[in-house]
Specification:
By secondary structure, the protein is an alpha/beta fold. The chain has two domains: 6-54, RecR Domain 1 (Helicase, Ruva Protein, domain 3, Orthogonal Bundle); 64-200, Dna Topoisomerase Vi A Subunit, Chain: A, domain 2. The protein is 44% helix and 11% strand. It contains eight helices and seven strands; from the N terminus they run αααββαβαβαβαβαβ. The chain has helices at residues 6-15, 23-35, 38-54, 71-74, 89-97, 125-133, 148-164, 188-196; strands at 56-57, 64-65, 82-86, 104-107, 139-142, 169-172, 199-200. β3 (82-86), α5 and β4 form a beta-alpha-beta unit. α1 packs across α2 (23-35).
């Protein structure tokens, strides 16, 4: 049996670590790279290398951006009194793609999952508290999905806001989102209606 050359195997091993790619899919991708013009493969390599140098987290919301603050936080036309809290950047991108929400965001970075050792100190709570302490926020919208982890995180955040900032309204997306679903996988109309008909957290 012929052994895969070491340089090719090294690329396969790295690609196979990506979500949704197994060894066979990684091999197909690596072989496709070999068929590209040399300039294209070098451009891809440079783009991957530059990800670390040119992208960083926005100091206000936690979004990936090439500027700090990110374009959304820097946009003076957006409402500054509503803060939409999402678990991850994917969820923020999904909400933004609908163009129906015009407030601010905060990315938690995770959802509480004690069995996976995701505790409150894994969430961006300092950034969350700092935003509320600025005094502009009158409503926090929890757009976390309908999973068990999302429900636990929503309850934790609601209690935190009510104990520290009792004048701030805490709402959630309406239950048009199916149980067990994540925000980043929802279609735009479902998200639009969930946001429009959001509910107070009792």
């Amino acid at each position: 049996m012929q052994k895969i050359p070491e340089p090719l195997q090294a690329v396969i091993d790295q690609l196979a670590r990506l979500p949704g790619l197994g060894p066979k899919s990684a091999l197909r991708c690596a072989m496709a790279f070999l068929q590209w013009p040399e300039a294209e493969t070098r451009r891809l390599g440079t783009a991957i290398h530059d990800l670390r140098d040119k992208l960083h987290l926005c100091g206000r919301c936690g979004a990936l951006a090439d500027s700090d603050p990110c374009p959304i936080c820097a946009d003076a036309s957006r409402s500054s009194d509503i803060l939409c809290v999402v678990a991850d950047w994917d969820s923020m991108l999904t909400l933004e793609s609908g163009a129906f929400y015009t407030g601010r965001y905060l990315i938690l970075g995770a959802l509480l999952a004690p069995l996976d050792n995701v505790q409150p100190d894994s969430l961006a709570l300092e950034k969350f508290d700092a935003r509320l302490l600025e005094g502009e926020i009158t409503e926090v919208v929890l757009a976390l999905g309908a999973t068990l982890e999302a429900e636990n995180t929503a309850s934790f955040l609601r209690a935190r806001v009510q104990s520290r900032f009792p004048a701030i309204r805490v709402s959630r997306l309406a239950q048009g989102i199916p149980l067990g679903a994540e925000v980043k996988f929802m279609d735009k109309e479902t998200l639009r209606q969930s946001l429009q008909f959001r509910q107070d957290l009792a």
